[in-house]
């Protein structure tokens, strides 16, 4: 029985994969990227099928990662050589570095925020002190001319009549 074009193509790809696996994988990845259809253009059935396939692939990948993490030491090479090649799981090292990096980054931002807030606090304290001194100096210069809001209410004077009352109420 003759082969269909799809079967011929599949067999050809399998032969290419056996000959040059690295080059084949690059070409296959590019072919998959070119043939990709965005999910919003797919029908609900095709979308469901794609999601199931992706779920299977991700489960297979995580099983593989777990297996690599569980393998601690592998010895390779002939018994005549005096050197041993030890294969350790690299994923744990990267994970540890990443955790330390994020920890350091978060500490750095916290310290930066803390220093910024303390600088703002010092600046506001200086402004407050400056304004208090200014008020004290004004009260020492003309204590009889300064009117408070209670004095103005008692005398029925509005702030429009007395500009000094307006200044006092602003500060």
The secondary-structure element order is: HHHEEHHH
Class of secondary structure makeup: mainly alpha
Tell me the β content. Answer: under 5%
Question: How many DSSP E strands?
Answer: 2
What's the arrangement of strands in the largest beta sheet?
A: 1-2
Count of DSSP-assigned helices: 6
Low-confidence stretches: none
Give the overall shape, derived from the CA principal axes: elongated
Query: What is the averaged pLDDT score?
Result: 77
Number of domains: 2
> Major sheet, described briefly?
2 strands, antiparallel
Estimate the helix proportion, in percent.
over 70%
Any idea what the radius of gyration is?
39 Å
Distance between the termini: 100 Å
Biased composition (Basic and acidic residues): 113-126
Biased composition (Basic residues): 10-20
Region (Disordered): 1-22, 111-171
Question: What report would you give on this structure?
Answer:
The protein has 171 residues and is mainly alpha-helical. The chain folds into 2 domains: 1-46, no CATH class; 93-170, no CATH class. 71% of the residues lie in helices and 2% in strands. It contains 6 helices and 2 strands; from the N terminus they run H-H-H-E-E-H-H-H. The protein has helices at residues 5-19, 21-34, 44-70, 91-141, 149-155, 163-170, and strands at residues 75-76, 85-86. The protein has a two-stranded antiparallel ribbon. Strand 1 and strand 2 form a beta hairpin. Helix 1 packs across helix 2 (21-34). The mean pLDDT is 77.
